[in-house]
Amino acid sequence: MGVGVLILASLLGPVVAPYSPTSQEFAHILEGPSASHWLGTDELGRDEFTRVLYASRVDLLIGVIGVAVPLVIGTGIGLVAGFVGGWVDAVVGRVIDVFTAFPFFVLVIAIVAMLGPGLRNLYLAIFIVGWVAYARIVRGETLSVKRREYVLAARTLGYSAPRVVVRHILPNVVVPALVFGTSDVVLNIVIGSSVGFFGLGVQPPDAEWGSMIGAGRNFVDTAPWLALAPGIAIVTTGLVFSLLGDGVADYVRGVERGA
């Protein structure tokens, strides 16, 4: 329910937002919350409520796309490594070890700093680092599943390796990765906001929650709503997706116990 509301709000942002997110009204600089500006205005007279709505589209996309692409890449690599084994699995395992030796946040920040600020480079950084967690999960599950009777029977019957992987292994190993992905959305949103806070993410005048907090920190004493509104948006979104992840995990555990 909560995720649906967030998605609906982001999609309908241009429809329900009363102002343009980039239009500057210097006659209304740093006005407090009112009937005409529900969350006040920023240092350039832009409506804060409008910018929070528009920023939700950017941050939700960072969260979802930042999970979808690494999920596909990591699942493919983990499947191949776990099924083929041997030197392929050893190489993939060492690469995973190298990536996991460094905090995810530090690696993303370092890559964005090297590539330069911008949303495209933020996506690239998340893709480069994010696949590792999914590859580790799927690889471990594949090593276990490929020894089960139904997989051994399929290989004994002469089924091709791609068919065994796609038809018999993939459906049984991808669920844990999907469960992890629902929670990983939160991490990606926080990463995107953090990078934006440091000025390395979405660039002005486009709205993004982290960059809005970064700009609003200079006015905490005189206009606290500038940092408070996007901060509450981040916390609310994180809570909603965390609850979704817990719900999906509980459902999967219930199905497994029933089976």
What does this 3D model show about the protein?
- The protein has 259 residues and is an all-alpha fold.
- The protein has one domain: MetI-like (MetI-like fold, Orthogonal Bundle).
- 74% of the residues lie in helices and 0% in strands.
- The longest helix is centred in the first third of the chain and has 37 residues.
- It is elongated and about 75 Å long.
- The mean pLDDT is 89.
Search tags:
259 residues; mainly alpha; MetI-like fold; 10 helices; elongated
What general outline do the C-alpha atoms trace?
A: elongated
Which second-level CATH architecture applies? Answer: Orthogonal Bundle
Task: Say what the CATH topology is.
Answer: MetI-like fold
Q: How many runs of DSSP E, i.e. beta strands?
A: 0
Q: Uncertain segments of ≥5 residues (pLDDT<50)?
A: none
Mean pLDDT: 89
> What CATH first level would be assigned?
Mainly Alpha
The number of domains: 1
Give the oligomeric state of the chains in this entry, treating copies of one chain as homo and distinct chains as hetero.
single chain
Please trace the helix and strand order, writing H or E for each element. Answer: HHHHHHHHHH
Q: What is the assigned CATH homologous superfamily? A: MetI-like
Q: Report the β-strand fraction as a percent range.
A: under 5%
State the distance separating the first and last CA atoms.
27 Å
Biggest sheet descriptor: none
| Helix amount | over 70%
Integer-rounded radius of gyration: 22 Å
Structural class: mainly alpha
How many helices does DSSP assign?
10
